[in-house]
Amino acid sequence: MKLVLLGGPGAGKGTQAAMMKNHYGIPHVSTGEILREARAGGTELGRKAAGYMDSGKLLPDDIILGIIEERVAKFGGGFLFDGFPRTIAQAEGLDAMLGRLGWALDAVVSIEVPDETVITRLLKRAEIEGRPDDNRETIANRLKVYYDQTEPLKAYYRKRGILRTVDGLGSVDEVFGRIRTILGGAG
Ligand code: AMP
Q: What structural domains and CATH numbers belong to the chain?
């Protein structure tokens, strides 16, 4: 299966992506994780990414598309993108890459959670994981960036008939159950 997982900050994308990766046996690609690893490794990409990430801003589309381009051709059997695409330009870039490979997305799953829940969840994650971008100011910024730049992707994929929305409230297993139902007989 070729899937994209969409959702605002704190919607539970990373958690559900890990469940889906195990269940469907497809590689999981998180651009946020790739960038955090690059930072930890002190690479040039990591140094470039730091300022954007700490202020809750998106990295330029060409950098992100370069990261994906390096990896996508290796995923013949399927993949799950989490945190990518995040802008219309990235979605168009992905379409072009997949088109060159003769592939198409099977579904875009959007996990939907109210803003109040997101803020509580992210502040809790800040305590547990100590992610530098989980503070009140950055959270507000990331929410704004999500509504301005990423939410329009829902209309983009709805038009194509591949958008599936999932209620992200409830336990991890409940949400995962909804995702399995939505993706249908595929396991
Ligand atoms: P995430 O873990 O997906 O919330 O990503 C953490 C941060 O990495 C974001 O707030 C952005 O600064 C950056 N980032 C991750 N994915 C992307 C993307 N597809 N486009 C631009 N920036 C990204």
A: 2-182 (3.40.50.300)
